[in-house]
């Protein structure tokens, strides 16, 4: 029974890692759609979001089944509960990427991001998608130190968010105010995506070590 339980945990970990990879790809595609006004790509991100919703539900069902049938304790219990927590956060990350894709769709065929801010949003996409990819590694590998690593990446996202906000609120801003609002919301989506990734890393580290980092 113990061997079967560990196999089930590995399967659960595999689902979480796949969710993290899917969230990373969604963010990468959403950013590309935003910066290139690629409507079909934005539609792909939006339609694919339902897959992450389904994966979250499957993870929760499998985790609750393990809790009911195996009554895990200590580290095993932390691992199962972490799976439920992390699945919710990863699904939310997918939602945030979809919000970015939705903004690209609403603005099409006109660009939402001014040319001078395109490098900032490109970096936001790179940093946040890399954070999600790193979560997949943490699920399968050594989770210790992951929280600190992703917290540093999150600080960079905060810096980029602050740069955008300083630009759109400056006295020299000449773009339409609606664009300023859209950009403010977009950077918030990236910031929240990064925050969710940090939360997942924190819970994974706690599940692995029994110590809550931070």
TrEMBL record:
Protein name: Phosphate-specific transport system accessory protein PhoU
Similarity section: Belongs to the PhoU family.
Record text on subunit structure and interactions: Homodimer.
InterPro entries (alphabetical): PhoU, PhoU-like_sf, PhoU_dom
UniProt GO BP: intracellular phosphate ion homeostasis; negative regulation of phosphate metabolic process; phosphate ion transport
Pfam families documented for this protein: PhoU
Function: Plays a role in the regulation of phosphate uptake.
Native organism taxonomy: Bacteria, Bacillati, Actinomycetota, Actinomycetes, Pseudonocardiales
Domain of life: Bacteria
